[in-house]
Amino acid sequence: MAEPGPAERARTAVMRGALGLAVAGGVAVTVAAVRHLASCPPSGADPGCVRELVVWALPAPVAGAPALDLTVRVDGLSALFLALVGVCTSCIAVYSFGWLRHDPLRHSVAVAFDLFVAAILLTLVVDNLFWLLVALELITLVSANLVRYRGRSGGSPQASRTAVRTYLVVGQASLVCLLAGLLPVAVASGTLDFDGLRAGATSPAPVASFALVLLGLGIRAGVSPFHFWVPVVHPQLPTNTHAMMSAVMLKIAVYLMIRCFLEGMLGPVQWWWGAVVLVLAGATALVTVFYALLCKDLKTALAYHSVENVGIILAGLGLALLFGADRFAGQPAMRGAAALALLASLYHVVNHALFKTLLFLGAGAVERQAGTVETRLLGGLLRASPWVGVPFLVGAVAIAGFPPLNGFVSEWLTLQALFGGQAVYRQGGTLALAAMVALVLGLVLVAASFALTALAFVKIAGETLLGLPRGPRATGGQVAWSMRSVLVLLAGACLLLGLQPWLLVGWLETAVAATAIDAPVLQASPTGLTVELGLGYRAALPLWPLLAVGVVPLLLTLWVRAGAATRRPVWAGGEAFQPRTMQYTGGALSSLVWELVAGPPGRSPEAPLPASFRLSGRLAVVEQANRLVNGLVTRVGRASQWAGDRVQDGDIRNYLLYIFGVVMVVLILLVAALLGPP
Amino acid sequence: MTWALTLAQAAAYLLLAPLFAGLVDWLKARLQGRRGPDPAQPYRDLRKLLGKAPSVPGPASGVFLLAAPLAFTCLGLLGFALPLFLVPALEMDLLLALALLGLARFVTALAAFDAAAPFGPMSGGRQLFVHTLAEPALLLVVYVLALGNDTTGLASLTTGGNPWAEPAVPLALGALGYVLLASNGRLPFDNPATHLELTMVEQGTRLEHSGRALALLEWADAMRLTFALTLLANLAVPWGVTAERAPLPVLLAFLAYLAKVGGLLLALAWWEIVHAKARLRAVASPLLLALGALLFAVVSLVVQDL
């Protein structure tokens, strides 16, 4: 191999420096956040466990306007998210040493990754609406640079441009809605500090504020039908930052939802907010897991699954809002159910960050190994490279929500919160009936999405890891040890949090206590979790079956294999077995589900997003959200062209008229200001 | 004493399971006027298979080898915590029990992919598809039970008060029975006696297994049937499960258990000879019907609280 030139060496040095900084910073943030969580008293003594530090005292630019101090504020909730960001950052940075090693854009990606993480950290610690908006805008800008990656390294420029545009438009739209929802609150309370907003400011129009904030954050979190941007943007990212975007960035929206809704920034919590969030969350989970089943590409499928998991997280949050509404303030049973729901939601936040980071990094390793992420060309990776295959399989079982892995624990807790909130049925007729509709609908949607996730991951894991290779496989690069070690570490974390959930519960309780809801409802010990809500609801998750499921099968396998299991060729009805054509495919597996709604592919209109999934020559399934967006984009484009043609018609007299009109308006305003009341 | 009895109950669950599987086939045959296989035949099959080392398809990895032991463990564990005739020393949650059943299904479907032969994944996928339709109804059953009993613990649910006092619970139990037919691969969802690979829903995932692995899978199937029968019997007739540790009550409780399950076995055999297998595309509507019944159950429970 030729000696690398000075430019190459400089790039490598920049990459190493940036990634080293990320590893060190990630570890430091994790340690600091965990120490903060551990130092908080269990509950009651110091609710919220808040530490504040004014970094930059910035007086108000205009007299009478609120001050814009940059204050760092960390409480239990933000410490939990900070720890999560820290863990993900350091894992991804270590992995990137291997993944980026020969990449021509390594310096740029590594630096952009550092900035991305910094912007996310800033979002979690700011305590001021102005700085929050700055931080959110920074996230969008910095990560938009990462979205350009595939376009810059030889991918389709058209797809890259679409992704960047979609991403920026989505970021702006979300910000505008958030601003429109929160500014009235800030104006009414005369401050931009969150402490001031929490202290009792109520929005002048709480319903509109709730709707706008939900819309703004929902767009960012990918709540259906705004999930469209996630699978468009994800395949354009460098693989190592997929994980950051889906495991962490989508959670920022969840974090802000908890802050805005549960902490009373928009006024007292209404029970119907929870009902709305719960049903939306269930619908999001089901819709996105269905589309995930149709994807042929591992990364797009995982991106859809990210939104599905956001749905499950939001279901927990919806339950917390429903049960934790202010009108139930005096009822311990309701408060308990709300605390349990929020705890379940946060547990799933942690779990999803772990297993989704694992799966995305695993997909990166699969791509490195096999040269493609198209699942129908893959197969047999578990035997070919067990260091990648086994952790990926662990991630698949975890996301499908089976014991003894961590996904099961948070799904169990979410369902227990739903079952445990029975006191809501004793709150009066209309409320009870409406709550019942929301709860049952939420339960059915979430249950269906759990089952479909299992189907989807049999498809993904079966096609990617098991059997024999299904297609011509490029001999890809080696999977470096830095990548393998991170995968194994994350798989270990998934297993640990599945087998010993009590390790995490204490910190989660601290985080839950930071919101106004705190009631000790979950006794966690090394032998099991016990839920005890008021009015007698009780459920227990013993841990011995989980340990047994982890250990006994290994022993039994040794016994089954005793006495030399013989290997035989695959039997294919007497024919010679052809691995490429005779193996069952994931497309056929999922056809049981999609054939119910598939139709002939329509003529796809001139549109930015893929309007449907082509499943065969004759069948396609329409992606409704993308179709909606395409229609909107086409209409807006046509309307603006029509208006533009009318306004900008090149006639000098019209332009003079516009100038005259503007001057008149300015004059009228001036006169009004001068003559108006002082 | 309590522990010894718990272990004895687990052993009974483990050892009775093949008998129940054999009894269904024998009863079906008798009801159709055939002589049928001896009810003890599954024991002989298991003994023969347990003595043989498995033969493994060439491309299979560890997943294939692990599948049968894992499925067996998942189902076997339930015996330690499910009250058959006495309240066990260990507690278990119904949601965890359902998750263990799901794990067994998941891993056998993965193993079918691992074996690389085409029939296995086809039937594994069908199994998961049927389950996808059944899962909402299944969780709604748990919800109804939790509404009535304030818990999802197996022991408290199956030794609770009179389930027939409220109209909701029989409705829910009927739906549960229907859903359990689906998750056990019985008619009309799957024909357990089929030998035609193209129509298989459950059996296809067993095709590539052999020797001890096949024995463990067959045994796990029998235990799944036993779990379903026991759950349904003890939910519907919660009398006769004893918490006492004296010999006579335990013996009486055991006989009561055999009577309950025997009744259900007869009902299952009768059900299977009067029903034909539904087309795979048509299984959605009966399961939606079960879901509808459960919605009524929830509504009735909620309305009476108002």
The outline of chain B comes out as globular
- What is Rg of chain B? 19 Å
Number of strands of chain B: 1
* Fraction in beta strands of chain A: 5-15%
For the biggest sheet of chain A, the summary is: 3 strands, antiparallel
Number of helices of chain B: 10
Counted by DSSP, the helix tally of chain A is 24
Structural class of chain B: mainly alpha
Integer average pLDDT of chain B: 87
First CA to last CA of chain B: what distance? Answer: 45 Å
Structural class of chain A: mainly alpha
* Straight-line distance between termini of chain A: 78 Å
Write down the overall geometry of chain A: globular
Largest interface: A-B, 86 and 78 residues
Beta-strand segment tally of chain A = 8
Helix content of chain A: 55-70%
Order of strands across the widest beta sheet of chain A? 3-4-5
**Stretches of chain A where pLDDT falls below 50 for ≥5 residues?**
none
Secondary-structure element pattern of chain B, one letter each = HHEHHHHHHHH
Mean pLDDT of chain A: 86
Tell me the helix content of chain B. Answer: 55-70%
Would you spell out the secondary-structure blueprint of this structure?
The complex is a heterodimer of chains A (678) and B (306).
Chain A (H helix, E strand, L loop, with lengths): L5 H34 L11 E6 L13 E5 L1 H24 L6 H20 L3 H19 L1 H4 L4 H33 L4 H5 L7 H16 L7 H5 L5 H24 L8 H24 L3 H26 L8 H39 L10 H4 L1 H14 L6 H15 L8 H37 L15 H19 L2 H13 L7 E4 L2 E5 L5 E5 L1 H18 L4 E3 L10 H4 L3 H9 L17 E3 L5 E3 L1 H24 L4 H24 L3
Antiparallel strand pairs in A: 1-2, 3-4, 4-5, 7-8
Chain B lengths: L1 H30 L9 H10 L4 E3 L4 H20 L12 H21 L4 H31 L4 H5 L9 H16 L27 H26 L10 H28 L9 H22 L1
How would you sum up this structure, described in words?
The complex is a heterodimer of chains A (678) and B (306). Chain A has 678 residues and is mostly helical. Chain A has 24 helices and eight strands. Chain A has a three-stranded antiparallel sheet with strand order 3-4-5. A two-stranded antiparallel sheet of chain A has the order 1-2. A two-stranded antiparallel ribbon of chain A has the order 7-8. In chain A, a hairpin with a 5-residue loop joins strand 7 and strand 8 (620-622). In chain A, helix 2 (76-99) packs antiparallel against helix 3 and helix 15 packs parallel to helix 18 (481-499). The longest helix of chain A has 39 residues, at 332-370. Chain A is globular and about 100 Å long. By secondary structure, chain B is mainly α. Chain B has ten helices and one strand; from the N terminus they run H-H-E-H-H-H-H-H-H-H-H. Chain B has helices spanning 2-31, 41-50, 62-81, 94-114, 119-149, 154-158, 168-183, 211-236, 247-274, 284-305; one strand at 55-57. In chain B, helix 1 (2-31) crosses helix 8, helix 4 (94-114) packs antiparallel against helix 5 and helix 5 (119-149) runs parallel beside helix 10 (284-305). The longest helix of chain B is centred in the middle third of the chain and has 31 residues, at 119-149. The model of chain B has no long low-confidence stretch (mean pLDDT 87). The chains are: A mainly alpha (678), B mainly alpha (306). The interface between A and B is large, with 86 and 78 residues.
